[in-house]
Amino acid sequence: MLRTRHKTPTLVSMWMLDVFCCALGCVTLLWLVSNRDAAQEAQRNKAAISELAATRSTLLATSQELEATRRSLNAEIDNLKAKLLATTTDRDTTAQKLAVAKAEITNLETKLAKSTTDVASLETQLAKTAVQLTELDDELAKKTKESKDLTMRVAALTESSTDLQKLLRDKDAEREALALKAKKAAEQLDDADAKMRAIAKAADDAKADLAAMRKSGDELATAKAATRDLQKKLDDANVNIVDLQGDKKKLADKVDQLRIESDAKFAGIAMTGRRVVFVVDMSGSMKLVDDKTAAPEKWPIVVETVTKVMRSLPDLEQFQVVLFSRTARYLFAGGAWQRYAGAESQKAVREKLLNEDPVGDTNMYEAFDLAFRLKPDGLDTIYFFSDGLPTSGAGIPPDVKNITENQRIDYLTKHIRQSLRTVWNPERDAKRVKINSVGFFFESPEVGAFLWALSRENAGSFVGMSRP
């Protein structure tokens, strides 16, 4: 058998050398990698240090800014605390005011509920008033008819008075005739008495004449009976004359009373006023029936109506006339009161008005403003003559543009009525002026409603004149 012989190993073999070289390469590679990583880490650290320094600087600046902000915030906090305290005080005050306001709101709600009830009541009352107005219109128509009937009765009574006067004259003539007959009868009686005395004296001397004496006695009895009949007729005639004179006086008193009542009314308007302004519309429509139909007789009718109203005022002492169209002016210069002198004043007004030519718009506001300037000097009544609604003057709000004609008229009429209630003629005024209105060619419900409301709100009356 062969013996295995082992070779003694050498210290370094090629294989080990290869391993060693590889290990050394790995170590070197690891060292290089570590060195590179260390260099990169050093760079990163350097960059981190730089960034840290910058951050430290930024942090310092931020810290300073934060300190400043903190101080500002502390100051603002103190300010806010003061405001909060003030706000709290205001809140408490507001809470108190709110409580008071809530109480007032509750009170107002109560008043509102009451007002709602009052409005409902007023609406009911308004409905009743409308019914009453209709009844009043009917009553006015009846009164107008009664006035016409009274006028006819006055005419009939006047005619009857004439007949009575004629009858009295006839009775006076009859009485004179009866008196003459009585006188003749008395003379006949005296003659009969004389004859009787003569016959009585002759009876003793001549009984033979007894038959003649008896005949004379019969004649005397007949004469006495005729005398008694004539005296009775005379007494009856005197009684009839006294009765007729009493009836005549009663009829005359009744005629005078009817004439006074007739003169003291103008189509249902009570004729009152001592210091009176006649406000007369002389716009272009006062010589027109409508926009296309001329009425040359209309303005003279208006003038005659003004003078008739003036003539019918029993207590008129002073007057003035205001004419209005685009503007308003006094008919008598200066606007002073004119002394009323009866027919002379009526003639002056008639002539001046007939010389006017109606033209232009209807500025009622300026007319009333001019008329009420005489109120401090004793103005107590206005008679307003017109045929339309206001078309110009004060009352359009300055911010209102491009309005229709109906809107314009609505603004103007409301402004006039409001000015009368609050400025010119308030209800609380002890010296309130009465306004009576006369509407001409009364065909428009709007015109009638406005003039009626104008007069009703100012303690007056309204009448609408029909087409002539």
Automatic annotation (TrEMBL):
Stretches assigned to coiled coil: 63-261
Domain of life: Bacteria
Any single Pfam family the record assigns to this protein: VWA_2
InterPro entries, per database record: VWF_A, vWFA_dom_sf
Keywords: Coiled coil, Membrane, Transmembrane, Transmembrane helix
Transmembrane segments: 12-33
Domain VWFA: 273-467
Gene3D superfamilies tied to this protein: 1.10.287.1490, von Willebrand factor, type A domain
CDD domains, per database record: vWFA (cd00198)
Protein name: VWA domain-containing protein
Species of the source: Limnoglobus roseus
Organism ancestry: Bacteria, Pseudomonadati, Planctomycetota, Planctomycetia, Gemmatales
